[in-house]
Amino acid sequence: MRSIYDSVWQFMKQKIYENWVEIDLEAIRTNIRLIRKISGCPVIAVIKANAYGHGVLSVAQAAMDAGSNFFAVARFCEAMELRNAGFQNPILLFGRLSPKDAVQAAHEKIRAAIFCREQITELSEVLHTSGQKLLVHAKVDTGMGRLGIPSESGLELVQAIHDTPELEIEGLYSHFARADETEPATTNLQIERFDRLVDQLTKNDLRPKIVHTANSAGALFHPAACRYDMVRGGIAIYGLNPSSQTRLPAEFRPALSWKAQIISIKTLPSGSGISYGHKYVTKSDGQRIGVIPVGYADGFRRIAGNVVLAGGQRVPVLGNVCMDQCMIDLNPVPDVQPGDEVILIGTQGDESITADEVADRWGTINYEVTCGVSNRVKRMYF
Predict the structure, then answer these.
(1) What is the CATH number of the domain that holds 368?
(2) Catalytic residue numbers?
(3) Of 238, 270, 293, which one is at a domain's C-terminal end?
(4) CB of 243 within 8 A of CB of 367?
(5) How far apart are the C-alpha atoms of 85 and 76, rounded to whole Å?
(6) Fewest beta carbons less than 10 Å away: which of 32, 87, 210, 250?
(7) pLDDT digits (tens, 9 = 90+) for 149-182
(8) 284 and 211, same structural domain?
(9) CA proximity to 119, closest of 74, 90, 143, 149
(10) Per-residue confidence at 14, pLDDT binned at 50, 70, 90?
């Protein structure tokens, strides 16, 4: 049966797609279970931004299979994509819910983040005549400096939500700014501030039933952040390190590989310019130049120094990356032929290129690398 599957898989790649990503859903399921085991808490699966580029609908199902039945997204349209696909799980919307979407959000039981008192007023006015009640999570700022009312004002915010009949408070949360660093002082201070607020709410009989503050790094490296009701699994559920300072335990596996096929090989004489601007010029006769159908429109950055795997070896990308293609040096791998597989992220033979390595080369973080793989790059799941 496995040989039949392999044959179909090879046919799909060779006949349909020349540039694709492969997503290992079992890796995602395993990673979620590991986060729960390490943190001791149920996991909110953060699947915003098309599940960090991995494909939201397939990842959502994998998360459910792993026991993660609560989702979080950034935009209302992301929540509705899940609802329209038939997912009825609780969904928390991290970003601002527009009043124009409030009635539909209430009807669909999408949880809204409330991070300022003005939201209470604008949402309750819209909901007042609809007969709908909106589930919400209060967001407090303990040190991120982004969304959220200051934690010292959190009691008043929760009380105001509690006193608003159009709103039903289900949760309370905050977000760490530096949990992915080895120095714990800032995270410890954020935990202290959050603890203080939770204690106040408990004493006033206002503690929501779902309290959460740990992101991936918090869940894995800060046990004190796991004393609440849930943790939020973001980058770690995809098997990617929160940072270079906080690397995942060895049991975690990256889920995404990015691949392409060589669509052309030509042999050029010395002095031949390659790609726009001729930033690279061949240095000897007989240089083999391969073309792969991957460009900056696919999310492969137009920077110098890109490397891919071909024939089990690292080979350089030559010249400027184009919108839809780029050229690679095949002299180090003389046996490679048109149709052979090239790896942008993943493993070939004994060599590997990780999303972390690509991020370092591009001067960014692994989050941006996978989120930046464009939608025209086919996702294939196994």
Answers:
(1) 2.40.37.10
(2) 48, 276
(3) 238
(4) no
(5) 14
(6) 250
(7) 999 999 999 999 999 999 999 999 999 999 999 9
(8) no
(9) 149
(10) low
213 within 8 A of 179, measured Cβ to Cβ: no
d(CA 223, CA 302): 41
CA nearest neighbour of 52 among 234, 217, 218, 252: 234
Cα separation, 167 vs 132, in Å, equals: 9
Q: What is the pLDDT of residue 4?
A: 43
- Whether 146 has a binding-site annotation, put simply, is yes
- Tell me: the pLDDT tens digits for 89-113? 999 999 999 999 999 999 999 999 9
Q: In whole angstroms, what is the distance from residue 329 CA to residue 265 CA?
A: 10
pLDDT, mean of residues 25-39: 98
Domain with 266, as residue range(s), is: 256-381
For residue 245, tell me if it sits in a domain: no
Q: Is 323 annotated as a binding residue?
A: yes
Of 51, 46, 53, 94, nearest in space to 70 by CA: 46
209 and 67 within one domain = yes
Measure the CA angle with vertex 56, ends 53 and 61; round to 5°. Answer: 135
* Model confidence at 225: pLDDT above 50: yes
Kindly state whether residues 196 and 275 are assigned to the same domain.
no
Q: Which of 210, 238, 266 is the last residue of a domain?
A: 238
Average pLDDT across the chain, whole number:
95
